[in-house]
From TrEMBL:
Pfam families: M20_dimer. Transmembrane segments: none annotated. Residues 185-275 form the Peptidase M20 dimerisation domain. One of its GO terms (biological process) is folic acid catabolic process. GO terms for molecular function: dipeptidase activity; para-aminobenzoyl-glutamate hydrolase activity. This is Amidohydrolase. InterPro entries: Amidohydrolase, Aminobenzoyl-glu_utiliz_pB, Bact_exopeptidase_dim_dom, Peptidase_M20/M20A_hydrolases, Peptidase_M20_dimer. GO terms for cellular component: cytoplasm. It comes from the Archaea.
Length: 470
């Protein structure tokens, strides 16, 4: 399909899209608290004539915006939450805008805006009579804590889609084909008895002792889970003064594995260890389940179409000035960090990446058949409808996400990647509108590759964890 008009539509929106990326970057908000960010994006679509529904999944900052009618129904996923402690100016040295404040270290200020741009371009095609179908932009909060799409999926937000599309900022451009790890997020809070730790320790029962026993027990579990499984934890509350026996203490765990079944088995075992820790310390334990997501299943038919449109739309038009600033940022990274990132590529592509500062040309997928050691709530969507996503080069080569260097890039030249991503998402949406065979092929592959029916991992009655500030 010729997408020149689609690309021209997105280019006509470029000034507005760049302005939106800057507005989100300047007002970073943490997950489930993205009030200004969600309102900014939803208002743009509402003003353009989209039917906006807010409060999806019990989350005030989750919304959908729909335009068109009939089939196929294509969903475009967007995110806009920031990360704690990553405030950073647009500069090549560590310089927070506000010490300790959030920052867009994962590029979600670009992420959501690109989806809005794609939805607007699809609307233009419908209005011009060049396309028929329905497009919905989903404003998905709290991806960083793997919450938004999980709670939206539980409430059926994605059930009527024929396909879902999304992207993510990165240091290279390629379809995202790796499997990700399913995950559970659980807090264990132990309740004991306070006492003077020196004068009357026999009167106390230490909740912190129980937390430490739970953490130690989890270390002994590692020998007996698969090599791809991950168990990690923090202690958000370990008590107060050392001379007071802690009456309450909390351990927060992430359990990850390639399948939901293994995640649930490990979590059940961890529950037993927590009960054992409580018995050993004569405390009690309460369990709070925050979220649980599925592994991601990439749809090859859709991903191939994304790659075609990435090549039609690219390369991302970075300037010499962009490359100069990118080089300054890259110089602040260690050689080991850059090598670890570029080593993910096939051997025949590593040298070209290593010799580049910005590498904006679309590449064929380099992660088919691999398991990425992270998790994404896009996984839940991929178990409900055919789903595809891609990386777009928004940062200097070798830059990890969740770093101040990524924040600086996201507030600068990264906006060009958002415009590029809007073109790719819009073109692929229109391909689905016009190509019944593509829709059918994606559905056939989905039914063959997704190993079971989707059932939310959330226990009945689980509410979004608004208390988390991550």
């Amino acid at each position: 399909m010729n997408h020149n008009e689609t690309f021209e539509t997105v280019e006509s929106l470029e000034a507005e899209l760049v302005s939106l990326t800057e507005s989100l970057w300047e007002t970073p908000e943490l997950g489930l608290h993205e009030t200004e960010s969600a309102e900014l994006l939803s208002s743009v679509l509402r003003d353009a004539g989209f039917d906006v529904t807010e409060g999806l999944g019990g989350m005030p900052t989750a919304f959908s915006a729909t335009y068109g009618e009939g089939e196929p129904h294509v969903g475009i996923l967007g995110e806009y939450d920031a990360l704690p402690g990553l405030s950073q100016t647009v500069s090549s040295s560590r310089e927070p805008v506000e010490a300790g404040a959030p920052g867009h270290g994962c590029g979600h200020n670009l992420f959501g805006v690109a989806g809005v741009g794609a939805a607007l371009a699809a609307k233009r095609a419908i209005d011009d009579g060049r396309a028929e179908g329905t497009v919905t932009f989903f404003g998905c909060p709290a991806e960083e804590i793997l919450v938004g799409k999980v709670f939206m999926a539980r409430d059926g937000a994605f059930d009527d889609l024929d396909a879902a599309l999304t992207w993510h900022p990165s240091h290279l451009s390629a379809p995202f084909m790796a499997q990700t790890l399913a995950m559970n997020s659980v807090e264990y809070t132990f309740h004991g008895e306070s006492a003077h730790a020196a004068d009357s320790p026999q009167s106390g029962r230490s909740a912190l002792d129980a937390v430490e026993l739970l953490n130690t027990g989890s270390e002994f579990m590692r020998e007996h889970v698969s090599d791809d499984a991950r168990i990690h934890y923090t202690i958000p509350d370990g008590g107060g003064a050392p001379n007071v026996v802690p009456a309450e203490a909390t351990a927060w765990f992430y359990v990850r594995a390639p399948t939901r079944g293994e995640v649930d088995r490990i979590t059940d075992w961890l529950d037993d260890v927590a009960e054992g820790a409580a018995l050993m310390t004569q405390t009690t334990v309460s369990r709070r389940f925050h979220t649980g997501c599925y592994d991601y299943v990439a749809n090859h038919a859709l991903s191939d179409t994304l790659l075609e449109n990435m090549r039609l739309a690219g390369p991302i038009p970075y300037t010499d000035e962009d490359r100069e600033f990118a080089a300054e940022l890259q110089e602040t990274l260690s050689a080991e960090t850059i090598e670890a990132r570029t080593a993910q590529l096939p051997e025949d592509r590593r040298e070209a990446a290593r010799s580049s500062v910005l590498y904006p040309d679309a590449q064929a997928s380099y992660d088919v058949g691999t398991v990425l050691n992270g998790s994404t709530d896009v996984g839940d969507v991929s178990w409900i409808t055919p789903t595809a996503q891609f990386w777009a080069a928004s940062w200097p080569v070798g830059t990890p996400s969740h770093t101040w260097q990524a924040v600086a890039a996201n507030g600068s030249f990264g906006s060009k990647a958002a415009v590029y991503a809007a073109k790719v998402l819009a073109a692929t949406t229109l391909d689905l509108f016009s190509d019944e065979a593509l829709v059918a092929s994606a559905r056939e592959e989905f039914e063959a590759s997704v190993p079971g029916e989707y059932e939310s991992a959330l226990p009945e009655g689980t509410e979004p964890p608004f208390h988390l500030t991550l």
